Amino acid sequence: ELAGGGVGIQPTIELRDAAGQRVRLTPYRWCSSDWNVAIVDEDFFQVRTFSPGKTEIWAETLDNKLVSNKICLTVLDIKNIQMKEECIELSTGEFRALGTVVEDRDGEKHEGVYLVWTVTDNKDIVRVGAAGVVWAQVPGVTEVTAGDDRALASPGTKVKVIEGVGAGKKKGKGYPRILL
Question: Alpha-carbon distance 1 to 170, whole Å?
């Protein structure tokens, strides 16, 4: 796993027995092999990255009887971030993952890097999740970008949201109709 500095990543945990069956969660704590690179903030249940380097993240039960698999996390020293898409168009209710190409200080290029995603213009038009998934909310145009505490993609991806297309006599807005 790769991440930028100052990024929050939401870890998940499942406990399973030797047969692979899910078991009841017991009290546990998160651990990091290098707290200068990243820690797990137990108040927010997020991995918080700090400085470039490598660390391993894992969970262990408070009685130290069980230890999870270790996830290797590399925090990159990012020099430049480029958005993969210059412009996209979505209908209301649609979603799509955006991508980036990250260049580190050594000149290596990486994809799939955890970054901080933000809507730079009108936040009512779209929402963007921690993984760069954009959800179209209302028609309009806005910009979504990604970065860390050292670099920011500029320009971002321009997102144009158009009215959703439904079926039948009454065109919908791209959202399902829920009847209770």
Answer: 46
Q: Which residues partner with 114 through β-bridges?
A: 3
Express each pLDDT in 71-85 by its tens digit.
999 999 999 999 999
Strands 140-147 and 116-119 come out as antiparallel
Q: Are 134 and 127 in contact (CB under 8 A)?
A: yes
DSSP state letters, 15-77: -B-TTS-B-----EEEEES-TTTEEEETTTTEEEE-SSEEEEEEEEETTSS-BPPPEEEEE--
Exposed/middle/buried for residue 162 (C-beta within 10 Å: 0-12, 13-18, 19+):
middle
What's the CA gap between 67 and 161, in Å, rounded? 46
Q: What is the pTM of this model?
A: 0.80
Query: In angstroms, rounded to a whole number, what is the distance separating the alpha carbons of residues 62 and 68?
Result: 12
Question: To which residue do tokens 């210059």 refer?
Answer: 86
Write the DSSP symbol of residue 22. Answer: B
Q: What digits encode the pLDDT tens for the residues 37-56?
A: 999 888 888 899 999 999 99
* Prior bond of 176 cis (ω within 30°): no
Residue identified by tokens 């927010």 is 44
| CA of residue 83 relative to chain centroid, distance | 15
Q: Alpha-carbon distance 3 to 76, whole Å?
A: 6
